[in-house]
Amino acid sequence: MKFRYSIKTAVNGLKTHKSRSALTILGIVIGITSIILIMSLGTGAKDLILAQVQGLGAKNVIVLPGKEPSGPSDLASLFADSLKQRELDALKNKNNVPNGRMVMPIVFGSESGVYGSEVYKFSLFGSGELMETLFDLKPEKGFFFTDEDVKSKASVAVLGSKVKDKLFGSDEAVGEKIRIKNTSFKVIAVLPKKGQSSFINFDEAVVIPYTTMQQYISGTKYFNRIVVEADSEKNIDIVSQDIKKTLRDMHNITDPSKDDFFVSTPAEVAEKLGTIFNALTIFLTAIAAISLVVGGVGIMNIMLVSVTERTKEIGLRKALGATDNDVLTQFLLEAVILTATGGLVGIILGSSFSFIASILINKFAGLAWTFSFPYGAALLGLVVSSLVGLIFGIYPARQASHKSPMEALRYE
User: Fold this and answer.
1) Could you say which of 92, 112, 230, 266 would form a disulfide bridge with 236 (CB–CB 3.0 to 4.6 Å)?
2) Where are the beta strands (DSSP E) in 251-406?
3) pLDDT 10s digit of each residue in the chain, 412 long?
4) Which contiguous run of DSSP H or E holds residue 337?
5) Coil, strand, or helix at residue 208?
6) What stretches pass through the bilayer (predicted)?
7) Is this model's pTM higher than 0.85 or not?
């Protein structure tokens, strides 16, 4: 009963100074809003990236030329030429990679397509006929190119949905011809709308046989990637090791640190990205937490001012029988209620901003971004904000409780 009365008294005290109370919790609101926003967007980004990794195929092993990049700005592998036809043939050989089921090279670049007066720039991929299976690219209209098209270096193209819309509008595209870098390509298929998948936006891409791309577009003999599908997920590590051994033997490499290629699996990519996201989330959350400390200091200062201004009120309460503990409890409750309210407002604002951001990202970036409410972070934020009020409210509350009733009543 007495505790309920203390809560009521604390709430009434805060209502008396509404503007001051609102300004006092501003730092807490900003801190909790930032934490919730960071955690929510971080989870959404992590889910998106993991979905892209899964799109690579759980059984696919990706072989890339050059040394493994040391960071995002290390683009040397894009220009390395350590993967050529002989490496492709070696990886297709069952004696070298017995558990490899399908092997396919990829060459990529950026080109413009022309149809009549329409011109549109897109990502261009040269691949084998297995691209349809490995990346789940079943055409909406027409048929994917065949092994025979690859061998004959056929000038045929499979269009992404957005490329088709930009060049042909509502007209039929299959059977028509587009020009890419002075070469005429017959459109044999149009892909359904897929959005971002496997780190590739196939809606804004065109796929042609890799032999055709090397002959007429890139003029190179090397591949940017070789994809090897394992016969089962449990054998993916075995396939990865077989690939490394095969290429090291071919390139006379005895020291793994001298590899002129690197091998990546979806699981490894997911693990690395997960580590990066976790570290980044912790770092940003730590920065946001600073505002909680600043908010706590602000609360302590405002509470000290409040104690001074309410000296007569304290004296009157004590004269009417309130104990030091009663006054201490009242001022502590005021601080905790303030910060808990700030935490609750921060949770609402942070989740609202994150929800709006997810809608905007989906609409304008074309990414399958999902809103994720961080229940754990919200609960922790509420607890932490209350603790901030408790910790930074102790000193002002003790100052108030130790005031002498006689001196307090004489205070002007």
Assistant:
1) 230
2) 261-264
3) 455 655 665 556 555 666 666 777 787 888 888 888 888 888 887 777 766 666 556 788 889 998 775 554 445 545 567 799 999 999 999 999 999 988 999 999 999 999 999 999 999 999 999 999 888 889 999 999 999 999 999 999 999 999 999 999 999 999 999 999 989 999 999 999 887 665 678 899 999 999 999 999 998 899 999 999 998 888 989 999 999 999 999 999 989 888 889 888 877 777 777 777 778 778 877 877 787 777 778 778 777 776 666 666 766 776 777 777 777 777 788 788 888 888 899 999 999 998 998 888 777 666 667 788 888 878 888 888 888 888 877 877 677 666 666 565 555 5
4) helix 324-360
5) strand
6) 21-42, 282-307, 328-361, 373-395
7) no
Token duo for residue 157: 């193209």
Query: What distance in Å separates the CA atoms of residue 7 and residue 146, rounded to the nearest whole number?
Result: 76
Amino acid at 386: S
- Cβ–Cβ under 8 Å, residues 222 and 83: yes
